[in-house]
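Q: What would this complex look like in 3D?
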Amino acid sequence: MASPSFSPIRELVRKSIRDVFGLVWDDDALDRTINEAQREYAILSGSLVGSVAVHSSESGVFSLPDDFILPVKFIGKDGWEVPFYSWRNIHAKYPDFRKVTGTNLQCIITDFDGYGKMRLFPVLPQSENVGTLYYQRMPQKDKLETKNKRAIELHSLFQAFLIDGNPSASTYYTRFLQAVNEENAVQRGMKTKSRLRRGRFF
Amino acid sequence: MQKDEYIKIIRGFLHDPQGKVFDNDELETMLKTAADTYCKDTALYRGVFSLYVDSEAVGKLPDDYIEFVAGWNGDGFHLECADVDYLRTQYGHYLAVEGHARFIYEDLDNIGQYRICPNPYKFENLVLYIPENPYGVMLFESYGTAKARKGYGIPVSIAKFDNIGDVAYVKTVSYEAVQDYMALIYHAVYQAYTIDSDFQDADKARLFFIQYRGRVARVGNVIRSVPHVRREANFF
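A: Here is my prediction, written as structure tokens for the whole assembly.
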């Protein structure tokens, strides 16, 4: 069933592809492209943030929600921020860091247990509430959560032309990326995103 | 995403809603190839297996194994991935030396198997059981593994052993388990357009492959952009 909150975007897309009466693209097909556009926008821009309470387990590993993209911040139960840390650094000091136990949370290992899982270091007593993880999240399905409607329209058009195999799809994708960069620029201006560039960029 | 939905979307991209060009089995094979490629390219999914070797220090890698991540011996110390040239510099006869595991390397004679050096066989106290009536066999209090008959889950033999180490590795997962389903769809469509047939279209194939590579690159960016994750410092 067609999502009512998508109707403004559907109209915009149909006008652009000269299909105002929906003869080529029915509502369900367009809704699928809009959902996909929102997902990609959320991944690239980090515009949506969710939170989840984290409890300790016997293995020290906790699973993340299905809409998780990447972690933003972890606030411990005492109100202090707990750092994210690569397992490679811990591994050098504690050969088998998976079995180190303790009572105070030192860090969250984000890159060892695969996507959708993180690890508390050290392993804490079971079933304790250890804090709250804030994370960039995916949008809900069939619900318009993205404020930048122009970007969603552009990505939907990109998908439409991609299905058609039309090379102008890449033009729409470039314009979509520009719209994403506008949001990123706003976030940097508000200092919610780091200005520092990481890694080798030359 | 489940198989039916995947195939419906791929057929939309291929303009083949009735399955006149590609049947479902063909598309599913492409999806499986796409999932394997995605797992290799992104190294997103991880697993752990316990080491257990025969008297020659040889063991079998899991079927879904792609790449070594980290390893530990039975005492919790590092198990390093090494090649035979390096082992020659460490031991006079690296195949014969016995002791606690320090290195793991691929068995050159048999692809899909690993070797441990030094040979820890005497420490694992390996016992193999072949149950007469395998129904309802209870599995292990300590380390062990069952060789299950394919498709039934009934063990035909059981190996019980002491801990000589374990390995974390990059693994493949099924296409249903991949969250970035569009990456798989792009790769499957790319494969369809590259098959040597009347349907072949190099330009479209390239367009979809670029989209797939973009998805893979994005995963790398997502992982790298986790704040502080690559910072080298002593916090403790």
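A: To summarize the key features: The two ends of chain A are 49 Å apart (CA to CA). Chain A touches chain B through 42 residues (CB under 8 Å).
Q: Very helpful, thank you.
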